[in-house]
Amino acid sequence: MTPSLPALARCFQGLIPAAIATCAADGTPNITFISQVHYVDPTHVALSHQFFNKTKRNVAQNPHACVEVMDPLTFEAWKLRVRFSRSESAGPLFEAMDLRIQAIASVTGMGGVFKLIGADVYEVLSIERVDGFLAGAPAPAEGPEFSLRQILGVQIVSQQINRARDLDETLEVLLATLDQVCGFGQAMMLLPDESGRRLVAIASRGYGEEGLRGIGAEVAVGEGFIGAAAEQRQVLRISNVEGQLRYGRAVRQRMEATGEKALRPEIPLPGLPGVQSQLALPLVVQDRLVGVLALESRDPLAFGTWDEALLQILANQIAVVVDHNATRDDEEAAGSPAPAPAPAPGARHAFTFFRNDDCVFVDGEYLIRNVPGKIFWKLLTAFQRDGRTEFSNRELRLDPSLGLPPVKNNLESRLILLRRRLEQQCPDVRLVPVRRGRFALEVTGSLELVERDSA
């Protein structure tokens, strides 16, 4: 039985390059590989137009073409008999296809150079199996049965999120349940910093000592897969990441050899070594970016269409939780701050605060910067000068020296980042929740505080 176009979804993920055959008016054929074959609807696909000058000339003379795609699991080949319909250089379809190319371009240092010219839409006239290409290959299965696991997994994640008491627990539950229930073992949550131009990882799971450069790793908006999804406010799903990067680097090498244009260096970004699949879901509330949920895998077919759709629903729920915590004014019990206990036995740690960029180092190693750095320095100086160990979220929000915005200050996310950076870099100093809206600074050993103008 000939499958429908939606049943060939695996063929459009880019793991095995597709090819297009066209013919000029005089009968001269031309065959070339295609960067993207994008599913549009049950009767149309869109092909990425980047370098296909001969293909475009042929199609202008003869709108009929043949596209060959291959299933990366069964290795069965299919021919799509197509007819050129139109080319789009703007709009949702173009933006979705362009996002993938720009993500690759930014990583390989070719932003603004390696770009999509148009999304060429073709009507699919027929689908034919390539007989004899692979004997005995089954036709792709249709139907919703394969989606049941994903639906149940997202339902469980949603229920667990609703039971979480605060943002910290929400993020822990989210990443743990995505791993244990849905099988997505590598995931990270990134939130914008105070400038809105960079994303900072405040939670991650499944990376161990490799890949992600610790909690606090940063990605500029617009750079790489995560940054591109954040900038465009669009979900970005890429398979065959290594193959896409090889393609981008090959184009880069050709451009460097011809001296066409000076290119930026390739950008090293946090992530999983050997990654083959990436899914970045921007968290958006009323067109405001409040974060990015990023998932990765070494499995080239880890994320399918159903995963993208269902996780986008989940991302919308997470976005509301993050946005709510950005403005929540926690209640707190009245009472005097507790005095500091006698220092517990332990090592002596030297903390240095650089006023020019609000950066804190511990024992000569970078710890944290910007608003979380100013918050931490306020806690340390109050601990050493006044013996204070207990603090409230409200007093931090009302302190003008910290530079928190009056609305959407994301205080809780900044405290989560600070707490986890301390767990990584200096476990002798801890931020411990006391009750809603209050936390304690616990110190094992002694502290030395130094303040300087610049590094």
Q: What would your notes on this structure say?
A:
The protein has 10 helices and 19 strands. The chain is of the alpha+beta class and 455 residues long. The chain folds into 3 domains: 125 residues, Pnp Oxidase, Chain A, CATH 2.30.110; 183 residues, 2-Layer Sandwich (Beta-Lactamase); 109 residues, Arc Repressor Mutant, subunit A (Orthogonal Bundle). Strands 2-1-5-6-7-4-3 form a 7-stranded antiparallel beta sheet. About 2% of the residues have low confidence.
**Helical coverage, percent range:** 25-40%
CATH class of the largest domain: Alpha Beta
CATH architecture label of the largest domain = 2-Layer Sandwich
The CATH superfamily of the largest domain is known as GAF domain
Radius of gyration: 26 Å
Low-confidence stretches: 141-145, 331-336
Number of strands: 19
